[in-house]
Structures are given as C-alpha cells and as structure tokens.
Amino acid sequence: MKLQSNENNIPKNWQVKKLGEVCQLKNGFAFKSTDYQENGIPVIRISDINQGIVSGEDSIKVESKDIYDNYLVENNDILVAMSGATTGKFGIYKSTEKAYQNQRVGKFKIHDEKVLNNQFLFYQINSLKRQIEKDAYGGAQPNISSNKIEQMEIVLPPLPEQLAIVSKIEELLSDLENGKQQLLTAQQQLKVYRQSLLNTIISDKNCQSIQNIILKLDQGWSPKCLNENSINNDEWAVIKTTAVQFGKFNSLENKILPKDLKPREQHELKVGDILITRAGPRIRTGVCCMVKSTRPKLINSDKVYRIRVKESVINPAYFELILNTPHYQREIERLKTGISESGVNLTQSQFLKIEIPVPILMEQQLIVDELESKLTVCDKIEETISRSLLQAETLKQSILKKAFEGKL
After folding, report:
1. For the domain 204-358, what is the CATH code?
2. CATH number of this structure's domain 15-157, picked from the four choices 3.40.50.1000, 3.40.50.300, 3.10.20.30, 3.90.220.20
C-alpha cells in the first residue's frame, strides 16, 4: 500500500491532528495503600504495563465502589505510564475483567471511533514513545502531563485507510515477532548450555575453603565522585558495581575522582584481581569476574570485594569460573543477608568459609583452556543474537514510520 505524498510527507487526503483533538488522556485515581485487599477489583498500576500489554493478573486489589467507576479500565483501552523510571511505556488492556486505573497511569479515550480507530491509535502511540520519553526526562524525576501528550501530533487518514494500515502493520509485525521469538529462544538455550558447561567442573574432591587459597580480600573506596565516567587514563576514577559483570569486567563503568581528593592507590585494580560485588540490589550482589585487562588509575569500590589468590595453589581464571557456576552462585545466594530486594549484603566471614574443588594446577589450566574456548564461542553467538534483536526493534520502528507516511 503506497500512497502519493505531498510536501508534508503524508498523502494529500490525510490530516495532521493534535492528540487532544481526537482523544482525551485521562489520569487515574489516587488509591491509598489502606484500600488494598486480597480480593476485589484489580487496580492497574505502572508496573502492570509491560511490552505493549496491560495485565491485571498480578495487580493489587480494592473493593468495588461507585466512586471508582469513573476510572474503569475496559477491554482494548490504551494506557501509558506518566511518571517514574518507565515514563512513556504503554500497553493495551486485553481482558473483559473489570479493572480500575491508578494515579499516574493515563488512559486514552477516543472522542469518535468513526474518526479514529483504536488500534491505529495504539500504533501511533508506539511511534510517539521516544518523544514522550524525551519530554518527560527534562527534570530529576521523569514526569509528563496529560496536556503535554495531548499537544503531540499524529496523522489521521480516513477510517478505511486506517483499517488497511493496521492490517498491514500487524501482518509485518507478526512476521517480525516470530523471528524475534526464535532469537529469544536461542538466547535462552545458550544460557542453559553455558550453565551446563560451567557445572561440569563441580567436584567434591580436593576441596578447600576460600580462606585457605587466597592471599588477600579487601574492599575498595567510594568517595563522592563526579557523575560522569572517565575515559582518560591519566585521571583517577572509581568503578561502579556495574563494572563487575558475570565473567566480564567493564572498566568504562566508573566515576571520575575529584581532583581535590587524594587517590587511595592501595585500591588500584590490577590484572588478575578477582572481583565480587558484596552489597547492593539482590540481583547485583554476588556477581563475580576476573580483571583480565584494565587501565591505570582505576580504584575499586567499597561495595566490591577484591580477591588476590595464592597462584601457587589456584589459577585466578579457574577460581572465577568456579564462583560463576550455578552451583556456587546458589551457595552465594544462600549467604546473602537483608530482607529488601534493593539492599542485601554478602558477609565476608561466611563467604570465606565456602569450600571449592582445588585440583592440581595443571588440571586447573586444562579446565580453563577448554571452558574458555567454548565460552568464547558462546559469547560470539550471544553478540550476534543481541545485534539481531536490536535490528528487529529498528525494523519495527521503520515499519511504523513508513506506515504513518503512507508508504507501506
């Protein structure tokens, strides 16, 4: 479906309208935590909007009341997050179950469905997502008003053309989604294979405690740094905990040390250091890597343990592989303390008591050589899959762009 465009890059019989001219964006009700109960009507919050779908399956519940009826969410309603870290994400409610709309969740209400098709609007909102994000992130706390979104422009073809465009978009996106799901399946299979490779080195023979095989365990320093990363090897910087990734060290994840602070050089990282995050969000605590390469003047964080091993006893690369096996990751998970998912700790004394298999150095080196060869292949496949997933998202945006220029 390709139409003749005018100087505005849209077909001559199309119009450009502000969203507020064809629909209203209505905010939700400010439910209180004291209203929540185990059973009742689902309340759709920002966390219930994910990947274009709105679901009340895991929602909080409240009692059904007449005063809430002005905030009903019904089948095919389009909702958008209007504040918080995920401002701009949107989705469509595909359920006949009654639900309510929470505060800071916007709901689009079309003025006349003979003028604007709901599914056509859904795809238009998709194409506006980046603009919504850009406008929302101007301050410290991401936030956008209904009025600001209503001032954004959309194209408005005649209704029959809207229906034809929706049909063509869904045909193309269906093919794209099938390909994406195959990539995600391959990604998951690769993860399982990687874990099975690592588990092959688990043994109950020749075990020693971590305390017996290391020379030193310390943690770094976290002064108040500049909120920007350093790429200059001549200036001092402190790593973030995100520099420590499973089996990978990213030296670019750092913050610049202010020039008026004297660097604590005893915390400078060296090749061969083993790093393991000791505090922070649960999902980020216990992550381990070896520093295989780094830059000078890079200081360890106080939320990261730095370990230097007895290389006459254990190969650092072997030690890293052992700690990243599913078996020992479960052991580390068991040792985490703290009740909040956003703040747990890995206690040093308990960590040092963990016992790991320590075969002779020659055998360790053989294990490292064999596993690293296979894991390198896994890494290359993972990179290919990640690139393909990014390309799929770019292609999706290209499809939508052409659709709203009348070029499909």
Report:
1. 3.90.220.20
2. 3.90.220.20
pLDDT in tens, 199-248: 999 998 999 999 999 999 999 998 999 888 999 999 999 999 999 999 99
Nearest to 13 by CA among 5, 21, 1, 23: 5
Comparing CA positions, the residue from 250, 252, 317, 243 lying closest to residue 280 is: 243
294 HSE (CA, 13 A, CB side): 28
> How far is Cα of residue 297 from the mean position of the Cα atoms in its chain?
30
Chain segment 150-203, per-residue pLDDT in tens: 999 999 999 999 999 999 999 999 999 999 999 999 999 999 999 999 999 999
d(CA 67, CA 64): 9
Cβ atoms 237, 225 nearer than 8 A: yes
Separation CA 377–CA 186 (nearest Å)? 14
User: What angle in degrees, to the nearest 10, is found between the helix axes of 118-136 and 361-403?
Assistant: 120
Residue 286 CA to residue 278 CA, distance in Å, equals 6
